[in-house]
Write a structure and sequence with these properties.
With about 350 residues, the protein is of the alpha+beta class. It has 16 helices and seven strands. α4 runs antiparallel to α5 and α10 packs across α13.
Length: about 350
């Protein structure tokens, strides 16, 4: 991203949880050393004590990571922080974002980003594929980042966080990750990856990749040129800070309620499946004009009606499968939906001769 603008004000850099491994800063210091330069100013700007670098389990805040990354990119004159054989000058990643901005929807934008990234360097390849219901953004090396592989972790994490953050920004939506995998061994700070990537993480794979629901690829681009110019004034937050809003949250919640009724009986269990808190889940649903209770009622109604139509199971079993505590409460709810009892409604609609397997979208 274009980092010619000043770093964030140092006031408040230490506020918020310190969850970003300081090892990433050590990698930046290594890039300074490779060029015979002193990182002292960048560390000072980010309020990172040099002694912290020796702490193998040390962490910094997101604001500190933003500050030290921005300062290092300016001083090294390299937006890639020494990962690649040749530096990427100021505006390189901003240029990629600008080239993707005119896309009609996210899939086109991300494919453009991956293709154009190959014009900046041949050291790595980024690609987007759709595998079943998942979108997969993969990173493959053609030359070890840093030349000797010493900057591999910082390179892989930064590139995947970068394209993920840009994708979220382009469609103005959080894109929850289903999983992330990495082409290097688990680092000592591997537990921090639960924060860096909001999905299960595995290490020691053939290449690095992130995976998410492919439905996000169809969402239209929400940004324009003026929004891009504003974003480029402080582009790093889209990489180091998680995006909050999820335009497909209602669909995700509805799908989970349908597909995993036994694991979604309360807000806490459901929130855990999408890597958030129950409080955040309720807040985000409200922002999309929905409530969890209304979605649960809708899903229970669909499941109950489908089972009454497609199977000959007793009403009591249908009630239990639909998530009702007892048959009486189910009958009462069903009458409020249709004006009829489940038995009468089933008799009127009829049971198909060959219901086949009952599946949920």
């Amino acid at each position: 991203m274009d980092t010619r603008h000043p770093p964030p004000a140092t006031l408040g850099l230490l506020q918020g949880p310190a969850l970003t491994p300081v090892s990433f800063v050590r990698d930046m210091v290594r890039a300074y050393a490779a060029r015979g330069m002193d990182p002292a100013n960048a560390l000072k700007v980010a309020q990172i004590a040099p002694s912290l670098l020796a702490n193998t389990t040390g962490c910094i805040t997101a604001a500190q990571m933003e500050a030290v990354s921005g300062a290092a990119m300016r001083e090294l004159d390299d937006e890639a922080l020494g990962w690649f054989a040749r530096p990427l000058p100021w505006g390189s990643y901003g240029m990629l974002a600008r080239a993707s901005l005119s896309s009609s929807h996210l899939e086109v934008a991300l494919k453009r980003w991956c293709r154009h990234h190959g014009l900046l360097t041949r050291d790595v390849t980024l690609s987007l594929e759709v595998v079943g219901h998942e979108a997969v953004i993969a990173l493959e090396e053609h030359r070890p980042p840093g030349g000797d592989g010493s900057l591999r972790e910082l390179c892989h994490v930064s590139l995947l966080r970068n394209i993920h953050g840009l994708g979220c920004w382009l469609i103005d939506s959080r894109i929850p990750l289903r999983s992330a995998s990495f082409g290097f061994a688990a680092p000592p700070h591997g537990s921090a990856y639960r924060v860096l990537f909001d999905g299960p993480c595995t290490f020691g794979q053939t290449h690095s990749a992130i995976r998410f629901d492919a439905r996000y690829l169809a969402l239209p681009i929400q940004r324009d040129e003026s929004a891009l110019n504003l974003m480029l004034q402080r582009a790093l937050p889209i990489q180091v800070r998680p995006y909050r809003r999820d335009r497909l949250l209602v669909q995700r919640v509805r799908h989970l309620l349908l597909a995993q009724p036994e694991h979604t009986r309360n807000a806490e269990d459901l929130a855990a499946l999408i890597n958030t808190s129950a409080r955040s889940l309720h807040r985000q649903l409200k922002a999309e004009g929905a409530t969890l209770q209304a979605l649960k009622d809708e899903v229970r109604r669909e499941r109950a009606m489908a089972m009454l139509q497609r199977t000959d199971k007793p009403v009591k079993q249908v009630a239990a499968a639909a998530g009702f505590l007892n048959e009486k409460s189910f009958i009462r709810a069903f009458k409020s939906w249709t004006g009829q009892s489940p038995a009468r409604w089933r008799s009127a609609t009829g049971v198909p001769g060959d219901p086949g397997p009952l599946t949920w979208p």
